[in-house]
Specification:
Length: about 190
């Protein structure tokens, strides 16, 4: 019986081919595994990155005042003395016209303020804007306004409420001309 070397050669060649194929698969898997772990590592690192959050709003009194424009939404005048005690809804009477209700005030960082007539003016010849100044005092419990609509006199308002949506201020005058009279001007503004 003679051995067929050709058969063994083919068998050896198949064995080498199989080994090469297995090595190629192993290298391929190893390479793919490295890529997989590399991609997994990159994905996990990028997943750890913090989402960018918007900067927190400035909730200091100045920040709240500067954040938006303000429009009067309520106003009452109260007069109290030994002879009279009455409260008038000044908003209903003074702000009865649309030309008053669209007026606004913008407080600026440089301590100026701009009073704007809005889209409709009550008097066509009135300027669109008037300028004034503002400041805080008494540990930010008072808002001092030099109001352009009131002849430029400084008025110290007590701050009742100052939030992101509401500014409620009050000015009290006590006069004594024989009878003590207390006048209280209560103004609420809404941010927009």
């Amino acid at each position: 019986m003679s051995l067929n070397f050709e058969y063994f050669d083919q068998l050896a060649w198949l064995s080498i081919k199989s080994h090469l194929y297995i090595c190629a698969i192993f290298i391929h898997l190893l390479y793919m595994k490295k890529i997989y772990f590399l991609l997994l590592g990159v994905a996990s690192l990028s997943a750890c990155k913090k989402d960018s959050e918007p900067a927190p709003a400035d909730t200091s009194p100045t920040g709240l005042l500067l954040a938006k424009n303000w429009r009067v939404s309520a106003q009452t005048l109260t007069v109290t003395s030994s002879v009279i005690n009455t409260t008038v809804d000044a908003y209903a009477s003074y702000y009865a016209n649309a030309c008053q209700r669209d007026n606004s005030i913008k407080f600026n960082a440089d301590k100026t303020l701009t009073a704007d007539e809005g889209a409709t003016k009550c008097t066509a010849t009135d300027p669109q804007t008037k300028s004034g100044t503002w400041s805080f005092s008494s540990n930010d419990t008072k808002l001092n306004l030099v109001d352009p609509t009131q002849g430029g006199a400084a008025v110290p308002f007590d701050i009742i409420t100052l939030s992101a949506t509401t500014l409620h201020i009050r000015y009290t005058i006590v006069t004594n001309g024989g009878v003590i009279v207390t006048n209280v001007n209560d103004i609420t503004m809404t941010a927009f």
